[in-house]
Amino acid sequence: MLKRFQGRSFAALATLLLLAGCAAPPPPPQGQPPAVPPTGPVSQPGAKIVGLLELRVEGAGEGGALSATTRFLTPGRGGVSPQASTAVPIANAADLFERGRVVFLDDEKANMRYVTSIFSIANKTGQAFANLTLYAVHIPSSDLGGTALSAIYDAKGNVLTDPLLAQNMIPTNGMRYDGLDISVSDQNADFQIFMPDEADLVETQAAALNPPIVGEVLEYGFVARNLAGGRSISAGTSGDCTASTCKGMLSLAFKFPKKTPRSDNPWSFTLHFIVADESDARVTVSAEEQAAPEVVIARANKLSTSAQIAVFGTNPATSVGTDRTRWSCSVRTAAGPGGTSLRYLGFAPTDAACAVPKYDESNWDAVYWR
Prior knowledge:
Elements: H1 14-20, E1 48-58, E2 67-75, H2 82-85, E3 97-107, E4 112-122, E5 132-138, E6 149-154, E7 159-160, H3 163-167, E8 170-172, E9 175-177, E10 182-184, E11 191-193, H4 196-207, E12 216-223, E13 225-226, E14 247-257, E15 266-277, E16 282-284, H5 293-303, E17 308-312, E18 325-328, E19 330-335, E20 341-346
Parallel strand pairs: 16-17, 17-18
Antiparallel strand pairs: 1-2, 1-15, 3-4, 4-14, 5-12, 5-15, 6-7, 6-15, 8-14, 9-10, 11-12, 13-14, 19-20
Signal peptide: 1-23
Keywords: Signal
């Protein structure tokens, strides 16, 4: 496949000084970059792949019982890299994921539905996880429109085959309603974006497994957390998990434009993910948090003062520090021919902003979905 390249973001100093606790100097003149652009850390050398996961969501709206279930289709074996080859293949999803539940919220003002699937984790395997991560993957033989989604049905049981419907199901953080407004739930903020080179590397590793996982790895996913709010999940003992340290939670969330009548909205769907363990802790500034990145910075600092902060498009959080920021101009959420993007978060891959660093004060709080 063709490799995807991106520019590096220049950012204002205001958010950097938020971490330092001092006042921010005025931003550079309009259209001028800061003196020192951030440069992201070296890409991680790969992931410990444990298998291909199929996740089924039912009840994404009115019309029946709500449930979320998982099963492993292809456990990873004999990985291509030292990291991948040390992973323990998991054949039974029940050895890792327990019960799942589904909640949905409607934003009537924006005509948007948010669907969050929340899984309890009980790690009964012999493998500990530093950052249990799900990479969205497009399986060409089944998934729609270059996405990780397939088998979409409405509440009446009709199959929905329009590729645009799948492409318009946008990954994000889990949401909550506080009685006044809908906002990101800090307890369900597990959305992740990945750099193009990271997604390419996982795709290469997965294809070299025996049996191979053949698909196009997209540039988003989700990451689990332990019961204390951190990331590490210890291994179980004797095929069981009784200690709190081997337990955790994982939230997967999507949003999509609502249809009329309500019964025509997606009610159930299937997702595909490559399950892996990552060495780097990272949090992502979602589209709903663009105007308040300090919330995400605080979330990252709870993990550690070295936790990465991933951003996309034009975002004020790109100024949190040269050794912590991971910036992607365009995040591929649906794969096109030859490694192109049919849908993306941030800028279009061909946008001039992705070719050269760009600073524009008027766009600090903007996010682009095109």
